[in-house]
Amino acid sequence: MAERQDQDRAIGTGPRTLNQPVSSREQRLRQRLESRFAPTRLTIEDESHLHAGHAGAAGGHSHFRVTIVAEAFRGLSPVARHRLVYAAVDDLLKTDIHALAIDASPPAADGGSR
Fold it and tell me: What does the DSSP assignment read for 88-105?
């Protein structure tokens, strides 16, 4: 039980103010990544506000930065890690997400997360 609680704390949403609700797009992205990779660390930051005025940001909540640490990435090149993430969220990229910045890595060799 304590291990699950530690994992829950590690899977954060990144910087957010009290006035910023989690978007349904962000929730779908989080659910997809959690179910596909069982990450030891997952942060998702909505960076849509940085792209105001850009055509792809018209609906808001469409530019995300993901940091994900999961055993599934061990032994893979950075390009292969990105391909796995893109494949896991492919349908969301066609409908809900305009841009996705990815930092994907395996857990550190000493058992910690980056």
Answer: HTHHHHHHT-SEEEEEEE
